Known about the structure:
Layout: E1 7-14, H1 15-18, H2 22-28, H3 31-39, H4 43-64, E2 73-75, E3 81-83, E4 89-95, E5 98-104, E6 110-115, H5 122-129, H6 132-139, H7 144-162, E7 173-175, E8 185-188, E9 196-201, E10 207-214, E11 221-226
Parallel strand pairs: 1-11
Antiparallel strand pairs: 1-5, 2-3, 4-5, 6-10, 7-8, 9-10
Amino acid sequence: MILNANTIDIWLIDLTRLRPQRSRFWAVLNPEEQARALRFHFERDQLRYTICRGAMRLILAEYLSSDPSSLEFSQNSYGKPLLADVELSFNLSHAGNYGLLGLSQLSTIGVDIEQERQVDDLASIAQHYFAPSERHAVLNAADQTAAFFRCWTRKEAYIKAHGMGLSLPLSSFAVSIEPHIDQALEWNRENTLDQWHVQPLAAPAGYAAALACPRSTEEMQVQQRECLRLAD
């Protein structure tokens, strides 16, 4: 599979549909990954990790024409996973019954998916972690829950794209919570708005998803794919 320089591929991983092939995903994990899967207390968490991690290996292997079990990973100083000795950026997120994998030849990429659910301390979280404009928009939205998760996924994707964890404060930048918008990043403290791109992604009902990446000098194309053929 070929990934062009200004194309970003987004893969939706349906855990429910892929569950019957759990053994296939387990087989491509390395011993460390298998041990980590077994450390999860609940079977649903073991299953989620196994399928998401295994699907990620299978998808990456197709782009790299490699054996999925032979892929080696490293991480940056903040713990963000990277492919060792390969110039292909990727980022994996999972929530509920879905995983989301982004791939790009850009220097870095961040994706996030969240399952919308009732948040009892929504106002408190917004007060402590959101920028003032985001807090105002979320708390005045007709559907606060949906607005909260649109905001959260966009902020999380931006944080993940930078690969610095929460050493980059959530309040140091702001995103729009509009459902459909080409560029959701409104401002950042470094005044590098022209260098970063944040956008919502199509997601299953009851979920929110987002992508963040450096701006390209050419128009970027985002292709959303589903891992249906992994179930064949």
